[in-house]
Amino acid sequence: xxxxxxxxxxxxxxxxxxxxxxxxxxxxxxxxxxxxxxxxxxxxxxxxxxxxxxxxxxxxxxxxxxxxxxxxxxxxxxxxxxxxxxxxxxxxxxxxxxxxxxxxxxxxxxxxxxxxxxxxxxxxxxxxxxxxxxxxxxxxxxxxxxxxxxxxxxxxxxxxxxxxxxxxxxxxxxxxxxxxxxxxxxxxxxxxxxxxxxxxxxxxxxxxxxxxxxxxxxxxxxxxxxxxxxxxxxxxxxxxxxxxxxxxxxxxxxxxxxxxxxxxxxxxxxxxxxxxxxxxxxxxxxxxxxxxxxxxxxx
Amino acid sequence: xxxxxxxxxxxxxxxxxxxxxxxxxxxxxxxxxxxxxxxxxxxxxxxxxxxxxxxxxxxxxxxxxxxxxxxxxxxxxxxxxxxxxxxxxxxxxxxxxxxxxxxxxxxxxxxxxxxxxxxxxxxxxxxxxxxxxxxxxxxxxxxxxxxxxxxxxxxxxxxxxxxxxxxxxxxxxxxxxxxxxxxxxxxxxxxxxxxxxxxxxxxxxxxxxxxxxxxxxxxxxxxxxxxxxxxxxxxxxxxxxxxxxxxxxxxxxxxxxxxxxxxxxxxxxxxxxxxxxxxxxxxxxxxxxxxxxxxxxxxxxxxxxxxxxxxxxxxxxxxxxxxxxxxxxxxxxxxxxxxxxxxxxxxxxxxxxxxxxxxxxxxxxxxxxxxxxxxxxxx
Amino acid sequence: xxxxxxxxxxxxxxxxxxxxxxxxxxxxxxxxxxxxxxxxxxxxxxxxxxxxxxxxxxxxxxxxxxxxxxxxxxxxxxxxxxxxxxxxxxxxxxxxxxxxxxxxxxxxxxxxxxxxxxxxxxxxxxxxxxxxxxxxxxxxxxxxxxxxxxxxxxxxxxxxxxxxxxxxxxxxxxxxxxxxxxxxxxxxxxxxxxxxxxxxxxxxxxxxxxxxxxxxxxxxxxxxxxxxxxxxxxxxxxxxxxxxxxxxxxxxxxxxxxxxxxxxxxxxxxxxxxxxxxxxxxxxxxxxxxxxxxx
Lengths: 299, 379, 295
Description:
The complex is a heterotrimer of chains A (299), B (379) and C (295).
Chain A: H1 5-10, H2 28-35, H3 42-70, H4 80-92, H5 95-127, H6 129-142, H7 151-158, H8 162-186, H9 190-198, H10 203-237, H11 246-255, H12 259-292
Helix pairs in contact in A: 4-12, 5-6, 5-8, 5-10, 5-11, 7-8, 8-10, 10-12, 11-12
Chain B: H1 2-24, E1 33-34, E2 43-48, H2 57-64, H3 66-69, E3 72-76, H4 83-91, E4 97-100, H5 103-109, E5 114-121, E6 133-137, E7 155-158, H6 163-175, E8 183-186, H7 189-197, E9 203-207, H8 210-217, E10 222-226, E11 235-240, H9 241-246, H10 248-267, H11 269-279, H12 285-295, H13 305-320, H14 337-345, H15 370-376
Helix pairs in contact in B: 2-10, 7-8, 10-11, 10-14, 11-12, 13-15
Chain C: H1 25-39, H2 41-46, H3 49-62, H4 73-86, H5 88-120, H6 122-137, H7 140-151, H8 155-179, H9 183-191, H10 196-234, H11 239-245, H12 253-285
Helix pairs in contact in C: 4-12, 5-6, 5-8, 5-10, 5-11, 7-8, 7-10, 8-10, 9-10, 10-11, 10-12, 11-12
């Protein structure tokens, strides 16, 4: 149940045949980079950031060249400069901050509610076979329904406004977090659970001191994946009841045939998520696994 | 192992059943409707419209055979969800002629090379026409259609940048209110009913048939105001400049057939409503009849200075809201020659319409001047 | 295989071991019936829906929400029959499933090879990874406006969106799958004289298969949802279109019908094809099971 640093560094990709692999899609390439010694100095981090950005920069160059050569109409495919100037306009008019603020606020509230509801629910499902047997089919059913399909029902239940949008974000995140929490609990070795019970641990302590920490790595992965879903769901949901937000900006731009603003919005959406994921969530996940992880070797 | 085989058998059986059911139905992907065939080599063209009651003229005309009479073989495209989509399709060369309203302004400014050759809704005898627009208020909203100052402090649902938004601005101006005196809630037409029901808005402003279905769905709601001449409703027959230049005769024939259809609709609103229930699947007959009642007041396919004025007014309003750029030059986009010829050759098709004011009558090569037009056209 | 289970722990359903002796015959029989029921796959799968549907029915009957906005099961079933009879629903289903088939077909054809290329060649992976992450972040829905401008309202547009949604989780799972093939196995195979191709097809590919199967399952879920969203927004036909178009005429029952149909179809697909497929690959080739977020 230990994850010593040495073990981690020794074998990059040895799958622990006795343990469990990291749930969810992790960027192994990123892991590899980190392991090559001195991975946390500012210089090393700057280098790794540079490596990360280079392919993207290359992509921009390709875009520039292709558009310059094929010269499509602005409406169909804007040039890099057009998009940048659209971004600049949004920044200087303050629109950008309005949109960001609205989107992030809805995201934050939806995420908070999702975590508070899904975590206990998922852990309960994980520790009770009866509950999980009952709810699993319902969870499986709900995978089919895209967030946007919930709009008529959401606007009816929560009123036409921010609340409906937040519901859709919650809906997108809830099941991912639940599922991962459930899995996280399930993979706690039974000896641990029995040991804790035999020592007479109360239910509450069981939850806080055994189940939650044990499930934590899986939960954090679920959080990360769920936030991804939530972010995507938010953009779709902002087609309704909004007068600010990145999704709103995207769809309004479509109404007025402003393809450069469309692409600018897409870029912002992508960059924002990338930042959130790389700077916040990935390190969080890593640290949680290092601290709490029971799986060997792949933290 | 046995269980797995059984699972696969069940899965196969279900998929088989599903496929059988699916094959039993007609695929509607890329379904096109053919307008019959004429005598000597009818000219083929494709036309598109948006699923809305005021755009029924196109499919109804195909159904009634007016296009065949003009020796045109019109292929109807699947209705587009919005005008934006119709214009995108026009731009992509997927369709030859589309029926589109306010989105044409932004599209033209953003570089789509379009020309306006006719109307499917609007008026050439006066500036403002908005009979198909209505304000639906909740029962306890306190909004009185006769006293617009009751709008103050209320939450009004409109689609930002669309014509109902502009209508609202017209209402506010008339009531002496400013945009800041009310709260605008950006609402798309399909969501208006549920927004009103759940109290997200106090009133919704929207075009037919939404006001009619809304009053049915939301208990206690009612239409407090309809029309009133606050805004010029526009809806054009749009094609690319290239197509218009290459096929002037076809355009004329097309416009003639449309004019015939319009007249038929004005004279037979009930049959037109029937047609609407067929072309807008699911529409109830009584909703269609009610909507058609208002629609026929706006069925004027002619061009006059008033149409230019209407477009210019709307473009100006949109520019004020920051939705389009200033300086929209309507002269660039109107191409009145075909319809003027149709008007001259077939005066009977327009005889039942209110006459165009003398000062507003135009000839080919007309250059729009805002002041003269404003004088010529009663608002 | 590990002694610690590679699959989620399936603890015995409550009641398998009768705890109390001396219970009354009625209770014993009830317990036996319950045991028999819970062993039936149909009951386990459909049972939980009974209270949900019952609740739905109740809420609709009680008129908690206005009838114009919330309909109950009877109305939905009626609408289902009506649309089936008119041939509308089968038509829309064909359209939706056709689009899905195209999207999934291309998605697999593009995602699988690309995934393996990225996994196998370190330089390619280093280069592509940031690009992949960036594009994954841009919501599939956000692509719809521009895809419509490029491709119009065609099968191409919807296929693009579905392929886009499927490719990323698929590639990630392929890479993860290849990553966790134990190095010793590779070395062993090479030391036995296997060339690169053989190593790929006989060690890496099977080793990655459970993860890939999981990735296909997740990817299909994404694709399913993307299809519905695309049909709602781009809609000219299909189940997603049907759901939202009906609102135009003030009919909400088709929204509920659509949700039910979509859910049931996916459930059938997942329970009867995808999950067993994944399980089978794990049983056959799995050394460790890759746990995806919404398996």
